TrEMBL record, chains A, B:
Keywords: DNA-binding, Transcription, Transcription regulation. The keyword Transcription applies. PROSITE patterns: HTH_GNTR. InterPro entries: GntR_C, TF_FadR/GntR_C, Tscrpt_reg_HTH_GntR, WH-like_DNA-bd_sf, WH_DNA-bd_sf. This is DNA-binding GntR family transcriptional regulator. It comes from Nesterenkonia aurantiaca. SMART domains: FCD, HTH_GNTR. CDD domains: WHTH_GntR.
Length: 222, 222
DNA sequence: CCCGTGAAGATTGTCAACAATCCGGAGATA
DNA sequence: TATCTCCGGATTGTTGACAATCTTCACGGG
């Protein structure tokens, strides 16, 4: 039994982790809209578990900041007002600029750029096909890829939450029209700044991109 | 009842939140050293609660990344190897540079600078008195103040965890000697860069400070 | 008509018991 | 001697029941 046929260590997950993931997905997709109370009994019934594991999952989401807890009253999906959205994008900028710099100074810049370009291309194709859903997905995939390539577990964890919140915002305004070409161009500029290894340019492009995205959002909200 | 005598809305906290805070403190101070298993029964007994609330607190810490969960085996205080420490400082750099920029561009720069200068002065005094404990505390207070002044709930939340991890590292190497003057000088330079409103300088100073701190740590670890 | 009072219902917070899983060592077997 | 098997003890995972709290709504007094 000493041969190693490339097996991976079995990594099972605790039930609370599983439930957490599903709830997060629900919040993200808008199945659980902002402000809704998360009833323990009904959710537990839906998941087919007792309230114990479910409550543990809830506490995770509270810690993550996706859920707000009111003592003896219940848990509610966090609502995002304009100030919160600004803060969200401020933090995204912090994380993603750091990620970009890590990627640019990393060992495997060439491969990283290849993957980022692929993501940018996917966005361009979706824009050309006028498939807004695909465009949005490719957009998220780009930013997730950027942070993944940085190879930082902490940046990744924080960013994961931020992306859920971002998706929350966009889901709430589904159907709003954004100019696809602008978005595609902004992402390309980010990639090229990384390729050029120009730290200042990277930061500037990401900042501008976030500012644009934020403006689009705020404009659509009013 | 329309007069507003400056009362604050009562905000009580759930038991799990309270326990979480205490456990976090324990991890930070080294009462619960890295790697130790967190026994549910003994901890529950110590806190005088049942395992329910305690488990909820644990899940929070898992989500925060301070505790690692092994299924059916237990929960362990996360250990930080060199790669983790590097990642920690990378992320701190990301958060604190963003905070510094927010402070520099904020409405109340003057007041903010005042408070930061006060923190820097406290450090200098501790260094002059050769009180290493006070110096370390003042150091932490400076960085916490910096992020608080940014007024960003997200940056704050993330930073809180990072500071716990930082303290974990330092507690583990208690007794090691670092040159106080260097540390004091680095912090002063950060404040002055913010005062000058020079974004690039701010980023550079914080980056260098983090790099220095990281080097000190890694050197001490080996 | 308005406001304070009180009880019913529902929801969350907590607990102690039960089930499942894992780790260690004693003993048997080759 | 080395290895396999099995059992005991301990720890975690899960559950259902009980206690505490909050909300709602009807009722009665001013």
């Amino acid at each position: 039994m000493s041969v190693a046929p490339g097996f991976q260590p079995v990594h099972r997950e605790s039930t609370s982790a599983l439930i957490t993931r599903q709830l997060r997905e629900g919040i993200m997709r808008g199945t659980l809209p902002a402000g809704t109370q998360l009833s323990e009994v009904s959710l537990a019934a839906e998941f087919g578990v007792s309230r114990g594991p479910l409550r543990e999952a809830m506490q995770r989401l509270v810690q993550e900041g996706l859920v707000r807890s009111e003592l003896n009253r219940g848990l509610f999906v966090k609502e995002l007002d304009e100030a919160e959205i600004r803060d969200l994008y401020l933090t995204r900028t912090a994380i993603e600029t750091a990620a970009a710099r890590a990627v640019a100074h990393g060992e495997t810049v060439t491969q990283s750029l290849e993957r980022l370009r692929a993501r940018a291309t996917a966005m361009a194709e979706a824009a050309a096909a006028e498939d807004l859903q695909a465009l949005a997905d490719a957009d998220f995939a780009f930013h997730e890829e950027l942070v993944n390539l940085a190879g930082s577990p902490r940046l990744h964890r924080v960013h994961e939450t931020l992306m859920v919140e971002t998706r929350m915002c966009l889901t709430a305004l589904q159907g709003t029209y954004f100019d696809p070409e602008d978005q595609v161009a902004e992402h390309s500029r980010i990639v090229e700044a990384i390729a050029a290894g120009d730290d200042a340019a990277m930061v500037r492009e990401i900042e501008e991109h976030m500012q644009e995205a934020l403006d689009r959002l705020v404009r659509a909200t009013r």
